From TrEMBL:
<dbReference type="GO" id="GO:0015807">
    <property type="term" value="P:L-amino acid transport"/>
</dbReference>
<dbReference type="Pfam" id="PF00005">
    <property type="entry name" value="ABC_tran"/>
</dbReference>
<comment type="similarity">
    <text>Belongs to the ABC transporter superfamily.</text>
</comment>
<keyword id="KW-0547">Nucleotide-binding</keyword>
<dbReference type="GO" id="GO:0015658">
    <property type="term" value="F:branched-chain amino acid transmembrane transporter activity"/>
</dbReference>
<protein>
    <submittedName>
        <fullName>Amino acid/amide ABC transporter ATP-binding protein 2, HAAT family (TC 3.A.1.4.-)</fullName>
    </submittedName>
</protein>
<dbReference type="InterPro" id="IPR052156">
    <property type="entry name" value="BCAA_Transport_ATP-bd_LivF"/>
</dbReference>
<dbReference type="GO" id="GO:0005524">
    <property type="term" value="F:ATP binding"/>
</dbReference>
<dbReference type="InterPro" id="IPR027417">
    <property type="entry name" value="P-loop_NTPase"/>
</dbReference>
<keyword id="KW-0067">ATP-binding</keyword>
<keyword id="KW-0813">Transport</keyword>
<dbReference type="InterPro" id="IPR003439">
    <property type="entry name" value="ABC_transporter-like_ATP-bd"/>
</dbReference>
<dbReference type="InterPro" id="IPR017871">
    <property type="entry name" value="ABC_transporter-like_CS"/>
</dbReference>
<dbReference type="InterPro" id="IPR003593">
    <property type="entry name" value="AAA+_ATPase"/>
</dbReference>
<dbReference type="GO" id="GO:0016887">
    <property type="term" value="F:ATP hydrolysis activity"/>
</dbReference>
<feature type="domain" description="ABC transporter">
    <location>
        <begin position="4"/>
        <end position="229"/>
    </location>
</feature>
<keyword id="KW-0029">Amino-acid transport</keyword>
Amino acid sequence: MSLLSFHDVHALYGQARILNGVSFDIGAGERVALVGRNGVGKTTVVNTLCGVTRIERGHVAIRGKAMRDLQRYTAAQNGISVVLQGRGIITNLTVEENLLLGAATGRRGPWSLASVKQLFPILEERKASLGLALSGGQQQMLAIGRALMANPDLLILDEPSEGLAPVIVDELAELLVRLGNDGMGILLIEQSVGLIRRVAERFYVLSKGAVAASGPLADIGAEEFQQHIAI
């Protein structure tokens, strides 16, 4: 059964339609990339799941159940964690306070303060620091750690490599593959071809608010794939 499915979703900001019949699905342990040029609706997919945009037609399903009234908390309550573009760190809270926000759903699983800090030791070292004081790479670790604290079945990351040093991107790729191998679904919304190819097994290309192409990463050449995401 799919963890998350979009079925012919048409979504609007106010009266402006951004998504024009988007359909895709992600199963347990799958690592999937959602790609496309800037402005084609990738972040709108996340905002639709989080109840920010209005669905005009179609529906979103979580574990096969159609969600008729998506709110900002719906995804988290149903085992989906989102790492937003820009990371969404609460800058006037400490690192530890930010992490504890991720546990607010009360879902049980392997991820706790101890296990997240074991994964990212810098978060233990900086636990009393304000989020504002962290470097970009440390903020990304905090954002992912906070998402894991919810013990999700599916982790969605919107442009996670943005502003990161190459060595941090390498570590991010290794982590996402490991999480997928452990059974967590991964939806990667990204522009970096290198990160996508290291992490994802399948892809969907958005163009003009709809899925224009999809398939296994192994079946598409690097040059053709690059054309789908060129700015």
